[in-house]
Amino acid sequence: MTGAFNLPKPDFDLEATVDRAMALINRTLQPSLEDAQKVVDKVRAGKPLVAPADLVDQVTRGNRMRAARAVSFSLPSILPGVGTAISAAAVPVALREVLKEAVSAAVKVGLLFDRDLSDPELTRTAVLVVLTEGAVKLDKTGRIRPDAILGRHASLLGTTAAYDALAALTATERQEIAASQSEILRAWALAVGPPLLAGLLPFGFGPMAAANYMQYVLKGTITAATRVFGPAGSVPVAVDEIPEREVQRDDPES
């Protein structure tokens, strides 16, 4: 899979695209807890004796599939010229869709580990930590510096059971993290964007590579969420790659 990450990029202004996307993705941090709980409950009902860490793959499978399909916005690029232009205009929407699935997957992991997510501000802060950790891992330029984004709270990244530490913070301290929301989302979009732009390469090769990368993005998000919401000392789970034949099949209940 890693060989697909170094594809040549179309002549495209990523930062301008991210700026256009920000108005969309800033509104994507409040997924439906009710819908997420239904998915978690359904998976648990089928395997009541299985440990939560071993159910993460099943609970988040639908999110990974839908994130991979977000590159369908790039399908017009199979026609060089006008098709690429149409796809380029849809990149902000694709970024929003991938972010939506990343946030949804993180919330499902939190519910799977029996975290109380009824406090929307605490939940949003935890998700922001998950996204920051994901952006840092994806960044290949070294421009994303956790200490510059989160300040003294950067120590939460990579810490198991970080949710407990977040819950112990005062409301003011959590607001310090929430105040960096736009910066965090921008860092995430800039980290995810370059491989997504590979979807603009013509003749269908780009969308295939970009779909594989979106699965990789979600895998990193899910691993970070397991570390944040899971118990102290838990080992991040490995998420299996989705078979290519399943990328086009939707599963509305996962």
Q: What does this protein look like?
A:
The protein has helices spanning 14-25, 33-46, 56-59, 61-69, 82-112, 120-138, 146-150, 162-168, 171-178, 181-197, 205-229. It has eleven helices and no strands. The protein has 254 residues and is mostly helical. The longest helix is centred in the middle third of the chain and has 31 residues, at 82-112. Helix 1 (14-25) crosses helix 5 (82-112), helix 5 (82-112) runs parallel beside helix 11 and helix 6 crosses helix 11 (205-229).
Give the radius of gyration. 18 Å
Class per helix and strand makeup: mainly alpha
Strand content: under 5%
State the share of residues found in helices, binned by percent: 55-70%
Q: What integer is the average pLDDT?
A: 78
N-C termini distance: 24 Å
